[in-house]
Specification:
By secondary structure, the chain is an alpha+beta fold. It folds into two domains: 100 residues, 2-Layer Sandwich (Alpha-Beta Plaits); 133 residues, Pseudouridine synthase (2-Layer Sandwich). 25% of the residues lie in helices and 32% in strands. It has seven helices and 14 strands. A hairpin with a 2-residue loop joins strand 11 and strand 12. It is elongated, with a radius of gyration of 20 Å. The two termini are 15 Å apart.
Amino acid sequence: MITPSEHIDTTDFQSGALLLVDKPQGWTSFDVVNKIRWALRNRLGVKKFKVGHSGTLDPMATGLLLICTGKWTKKLNELQGLDKSYTGTITLGGVTPSFDAETEVRDEKPVEGINKNDIQGHASKYVGVIDQVPPVYSAIKVDGKPLYKSARAGKEVKPDPRQVEVHAFDIVNINPPEVEFEVSCSKGTYIRSLAHDLGQDLGCGGYLTELRRTVVGPYNIEQAFVFEDLITAISREDKQSASI
């Protein structure tokens, strides 16, 4: 694993490397991979270079993205299966089609009278092995087509429930209508669905407004490169090494 405290030697990327990257808000995971691939191709003077990520983060989300290069891309499936941890914010008092702030808020309702004990009590019901319905605005494919494409086209889609495991779902702060939380969970868990389902249980609706991935398996966000710094380091003219 290459960390920000080390020198970046481009030969490491060619032989295969694991990079921990802090994904910026507004970027897709695919955008991050493409930018890194472009920077490495230019630095190394090659036309093709293998780069991949081990688990998608929505554009709105920030945080830990595992990036593999070269021979390390063969380990992507293994890395995808690791447990993950997040921090984030749910806004109560409405629902959205995407279960987050990327689409229009509907069915707004008052949130007065809802306290931390109420919220934590309902959140605790989602700890353990659960059947979760993914958002219709997701990359899950039905008949070979991502659900979000059908949803954006106005077509009715009904995702099948999927079994996931939530190890912890803790409410850490409440500043109505916002609820700050921490979650640790298995692969395939949609935090947007947890936000939506919690809002439904509370009777006022809820949707995800902030999300940050902090841990993937043994890897922590504190070990990650700031994305812009990584691109700058890769792109430096020194052909032997660069440091951040």
